[in-house]
Amino acid sequence: MDDMHKIVLDYVIEEYLEDEDEEITVDTPLISGGIVDSFSMVSLKRFLEKKYDLSIPDEDATPEAFDTVNSICNLVNEFIEKKKGK
Amino acid sequence: MAYSNKIREIYEKEIQEIKDAGTFKEERFIHAPQDADIEVEYPEGSSLKKVINMCSNNYLGLSSHPEVLKAAHEGLDERGYGMSSVRFICGTQDIHHELEQKMTEFLGTEDTILFPSCMDANAGVFEAILTSEDIMISDRLVHASIVDGMRLCDAEHDTFKHSNMKHLEKKLQLHEDKRIKLIITDGVFSMDGDTAKLDEMVELSEKYDALVFVDDSHATGFIGKKGRGTHEKYGQIGKIDIITTTFGKALGGASGGCVSGRKEIVEMCRQRARPYLFSNTIAPVIISGALKVLEILTKTTERRDKLEENTNYWRKGLEDAGFILKEGDTPIVPIMLFNAKLSQDISNDLYKEGIYAIGFFFPVVAKGQARIRTQISAAHEKEHLDKALEAFTKIGKKYDILNKSKQEIIDKYGL
């Protein structure tokens, strides 16, 4: 697991999981799996934007894009690349 | 006609998906006033069945109380059927003002403004008082109407783990730079029946210069020794900045809601809240009924005392029978079943036994947390509760879920 996947996974566990919840992986469906509700996604978006110095438009911060740690990292990398390309 | 077959098919497909997912809701037609005993037509066209209602918000049994009905009739005769106006144009009668004053006294706040419903109060209040410089920090289990109201507001938002004060404190620290920080919670959480730790929240609000908002819809009238609400229970009367609540549950069950709290915040709602400005005023008949309810509740605590007694009896009965309950001491008593289909099957079987209680499952509650949510009323007599306990026990034995652990039930029925 690379640094970003670990950072995001650790944040999701700290921010959203309770002690009695089952362990999650980078492929665990977070929103469609009912672990994170889409309204609470905002804190994850805020964390990613601050951590990686990005601005993710609301239309890209969809429940699908935020459904797994993998998909979240894909989205973040996409925006990092876009920023480099500018 | 623009409603083509193509469009019709789009919706038919979506409705079928709801049915296939097992989350399609059907109404049951009640041929009686709301009470502990009701007669129900279900399915449509079938003969009426007498059942015990274990799922209404009629916590104090006032929804069909003769004194409330009499007061409502008098209100109709003296003040008419409808006002045909929003409040600020020509929709405010003296009795609207009187009810606002009486609620202010009842809740121990500075001022109150009525809304057509608490849903409307929650929809309107945040947008009326907050800007993009501010932050709303809500418990993750707040009512859907609060989420909707927050979505309508330009202020930023964040959430904290349910009832987790350490997590709330982290969020207050994270957002320290905001102009106004508003902590948002239900007083009694409608799905779990637990209460917000308002004493700890107020302490944090004072430490971090934040405001506190509480939706006390499932508390006003019966939580606290005098039934003033969750803030009374936690010794915080006068310390909650904004309370929203409803007249559509314990306080008569008709309709109407309000925002009650700091004088200036209430005035901002009067000037800016869209549901207040653009929706019809509450009908005089409902105001008259609500005034009588407050009079009854201010005079005596016997109804909330009986409700407390009934609640303790019900909880003990279910625990002795071997059901898994959510911890709490409110009249909302969820019986945990974890599996959605199991909750629906048990609800259907209970109905055959003459007990009306509904299964709740995703997305109303989290996946794997399906339950039957029972709600106790002061209208319940011991005979109602005994009959319901008998039926629950019989059905519990049928499905072999009594005296089983959560894992054992999940192993048997899945999540």
What is the distance, rounded to the nearest whole angstrom, between the alpha carbons of the first and last residues of chain A?
Answer: 28 Å
CATH fold topology of chain A: Non-ribosomal Peptide Synthetase Peptidyl Carrier Protein, Chain A
Can you tell me the overall shape of chain B? globular
Total number of helical segments of chain B?
16
Strand count, sense and closure of the main sheet of chain B? 7 strands, mixed
Which architecture name of the largest domain in chain B does CATH use? 3-Layer(aba) Sandwich
- SSE run of chain B: HEEEHHHEHEHEHEHEHEEHHHHEHEEEHH
Please, what is the average pLDDT of chain A? 90
The poorly predicted ranges of chain A are none
Rg of chain B over CA atoms, rounded to whole Å, is 22 Å
List strands and helices in order, with pairings:
The complex is a heterodimer of chains A (86) and B (415).
Chain A: H1 3-16, H2 41-51, H3 69-85
Chain B: H1 5-20, E1 29-30, E2 37-41, E3 49-53, H2 66-79, H3 87-90, H4 94-107, E4 111-115, H5 118-129, E5 135-139, H6 144-151, E6 156-160, H7 165-174, E7 181-186, H8 198-207, E8 211-215, H9 230-233, E9 242-246, E10 257-261, H10 263-272, H11 274-278, H12 284-299, H13 302-321, E11 332-338, H14 340-352, E12 355-356, E13 359-360, E14 370-375, H15 382-398, H16 406-413
Helix pairs in contact in B: 2-12, 4-12, 5-6, 5-10, 13-15
